[in-house]
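Its record is quoted verbatim for completeness.
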Amino acid sequence: MKKKAILFSAIGLVVLIIAGFVFWTHRNGGDTQKQAQAQEDLQVTLEAILGRSDSQGYVYGVQGQFNRLFNDNETSAKINDTITYEIRNVKVIEEKGTAQIFIIAPDVYAILTELASEGSSGENSDALLSQINLALDSNHKNFETNVDVHLEQIGEHWFLVPNEDLANALSGNLIQWYSNLGNKAIDDLIGGISDE
C-alpha cells in the first residue's frame, strides 16, 4: 500500500512538472510552431520589401504592393540588391511578437557625404542618382545594424510593424541623411531669423 502511494505521488509530481514546463514554455515564447510561422512571414515580407519576391509581404497598416515603395528606381534596386540580413531572436507570446534583424547595407549616407565633400552634388536629381549608382557599382562602404521589430498576428499571418530604424537601414541610411539635411535647413533658417 505504501509503495502504491509513493508511486502515485511520483506520477503526480511528474505530471505537475510536465504541465508546469509546458505552461512556462508557452508563456515565454516557446511555441515553436508560432515562432517558425512568424519567422517565415517576416522572411517573406523582407524579401518583398527588397524586391526579391512577387509576394506582397505582410506589413501592418499597409495594403497593396509594399515592395514598390523601396524599388521605384535603379538606385533603390541597387541598394536592395546589396543588402543582406539575418533574422534573429524571434519571440512570440499569443498574438504579439518581436524579432531582431541584423542588416548589412550600403552606406548611402557616407556616399552622399563623400560626393558632397568632392563638390559633386549633381546639377539635378538624375545626375545625383547617376553618381550614387556609380559609387554603388564600385567598392562602397557598408554599415551594419541590429534592428528590433514588432510583429502582430492577424489571422494566419504575422505582420511586420514598420519603424523608422528598419526604414533607415533598408534605405542605406538615407532616412538619417534626409533628417540631418532637414535639421540643417531648419538651423540655417532659425540662424537667419536670429541674425535679423
Notes: The CA atoms of residues 22 and 30 lie 9 Å apart. Residues 31-195 form a domain with the Nuclear Transport Factor 2; Chain: A, fold (CATH 3.10.450). The mean pLDDT is 80.
